[in-house]
Amino acid sequence: MFDDLGAWRPPPADGKSEALAQGLVALDANVLLNLYRFGAVARGDLIGVLQRIGERLFVPHQAALEFARNRLKVALDTREELNTGASQAKKRLKELSDNLLGLMRRTGVPTEQFEAVLSGLASASEQVEKMLTEALADRTWADNPSSSSDPVLPLVEALLNGKVGPCYPAELEAGLRKQAIERGRKLVPPGWADFENKADASGDFLLWRQVMDEAKRRGLAVLLVSEERKEDWLYKVKNITVGALPAMMREMREEAGVDFYLTDVSGLLHLAPRVLSAPVSEEAVREAQVERLSDDLVEGMESYEVPTAGSPESMYVVLSEFAGVNDRAGRGVTRDEARQIAKKAGMDPRGTAGYYSMDPPLLITGEDGNRWITDTGRERLRRLSRLIAE
């Protein structure tokens, strides 16, 4: 049945495992940048997994370039998000303590019970404070960055020594960039979606071309590890990610004669203990899943149940900003804009997750992949406007 439709054939169940065990394992820049987002334990586990791949590990020159360009911004953004989250956590714990104190006094709770609850809450607050302090201490270098203070850069340099592909000669690269533009016009993956909002959107195609070139040179099946979410990379059916786009699988077979698989960091860490005998902690898996979940939810995927975060004031900011873009600009809010709106509201970007998963939702993702406020969201915004005015 699939003789002429091979790219649409469901991949073998062990295809990714075999590619990880024996194939070319290529890294996108966002995988390396996650090392700045992870804590020390998860960072060490991911580095350990990548080390076990050995000489089969490959980083396209384009990915290395994007890592170098964006590493400091990611480190500073992560520091900022942690600071914001720490401030919010402390504020919420203080509010909880004050609310419980008032409630117990009004309800006549016996003194010994009253003191036991407050003592337990104080102990929990101290533990949270300690964890947040440790998490922030691991990133203090970002306040005054240098190559000597950066804890990630030496690890990456040692890991990738001899594993970064060459850059293209200037004339060849110029021709490939023109080809990327033409592919973008025809919606040929990957990378066409970037032409909607980037002045230079040829980076994805350059990376893809470099991966195909290396796969052809080595004659090995490819497992590309990437945090890409967009429809110009992933084949999705009703928000369920099936895998890489069939067009990309077909092009890899035509150009390099090998099979192509796509996974993310969470998937890599899931496979690594069985395939590479690499130790991976639950903490590392959890952090990888949280990073994935954070981006997915900002994109409005309703398949996760995460509670709405933020005060009425922050919800008001989020909903009013979404309504403003939808109404004044007549378009949906992009993923990057959604992240900036969440930050403006003093929230971690994943804090808006519940706005999509409510029944009915306050925000939805449209067919264009951008985000829109719903009628329910507008009604909530009107109520919040009255509440804040009072």
Describe the structure.
- It is a single chain.
- It contains 15 helices and eight strands.
- The chain is α/β, with parallel strands linked by helices and 390 residues long.
- The protein is globular and about 75 Å long.
- It starts with 14 loop residues before the first helix and ends with a helix.
- About 4% of the residues have low confidence.
Annotation field: number of helices = 15
Number of strands: 8
- Contiguous runs where pLDDT drops below 50 for at least 5 residues: 293-309
For the residues shown, what is the average pLDDT?
A: 79
Largest sheet: 4 strands, parallel
Structural class: alpha/beta
CA-atom Rg in angstroms: 24 Å
Strand order of the largest sheet: 2-1-3-6
General shape: globular
What fraction of the residues are assigned to beta strands by DSSP?
5-15%
Helix-strand sequence: HEHHEHHHHHEEEHEHHHHHEEH
- Spatial separation of the terminal alpha carbons: 67 Å
Helix amount: 55-70%
